[in-house]
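To whoever is on call:

I kicked off a structure prediction for a single chain this morning and the downstream step that reads the tokens threw a length-mismatch warning. I double-checked the sequence; it's 360 residues and nothing unusual in it as far as I can see. Pasting both halves so you can look.
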Amino acid sequence: MFIVDCDCHNYWCSATVLEPYMDGVFKDMFVRGEKTGPRGAFPHGHRPWFHPEGFARHDVNPVEEDDNYTIMKEKHLDKYNIDVAILTGDEPIEASTLANPYYADALCRAYNDYLIDYWLPKDDRFWGSIVVAPQDPQLAAAEIRRAGGHPRVVQVLVSHGAARPYGDPFYHPIYEACAEMGLPFAMHLGGQGGINAAPIGAGPTTFFWETHAILPQTAMTHVASLIAQGVFEKWPALKVVIIECGVAWVPSVLWRLDANYKALRKETPWLKRLPSEYFKSNIRMSTQPLEQPQNIQHLWATLEAMDGENTLMFASDYPHWDYDDVTKLHIPPAWREKVLGLNALDVYSRLPQRVREAAE
């Protein structure tokens, strides 16, 4: 079966210079938990909570930079016969949290050059996501036009944490550039804190697991905003990919959007279709992490309500702690060929013909 992994993180090594100066439970959390930045960086506590065990799998322990690739190849790409891996970086999307948009843009440009020079040549299965800082859409659009022309770049990536909902006309220069370059616009879980809006509607949460479970709140807001602001009427061919934000909430949000639109459509006369119809034609969701009810039929009924056979795309989230391998994807068996690979080929139009032929 042809497999496209839409969320494969390419890591770099982080600093551990503060470890000798810590002790007790907090040293344990630091050593096993969230790294504080690249080598030589000072900790940046932009989140009010920290992962108690670290974001990466415990069997992924790179020492040298090249280990990040060799471990990925052994424990993910080769082991599960991944045909295409869409690289999604990791820390670079946090540039969206910075107040200085020029510094954020410079960081993104540097990362995109590093991605193209260091990662993409390493393996024919690699295809890239360029990262942009959405707090200055004009700079982001310029970067899309600069780096987005590389033939192995297949999408534009931002964090789902943002200063305002992504349908806001403030961001439209980004979509104009994406449409011009023929690239999907993707948002990945992350980018909480800094200048971005609170990720949790009622206020800050306390624990990582508690927070991680309800972070999809932000993605709900972006879906409603993209549709209501008419982004898909302005750019009807634009595809939006939502990564690592859960999926079971989608049907209930679409049901509410459809019902309220039918009653109050005069507010948005530019819309020509129901919100659920825009979702099915223009928005795609990554599978990881799928919700895990005790009765799997409850999940499958929910996925069917969002046309999951055609709107879901496989994602492993390698090498993160809640990684999903191909064998543990809990979707209806009849959907596997589309969700594991074919749906992604419709979104990532730059994947060449030889890749498409391999999927046939």
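Update from on-call: the warning came from a stale cache, not from the record. Cleared it. Sanity check on the structure: Residues 101-119 form the longest helix (19 residues).
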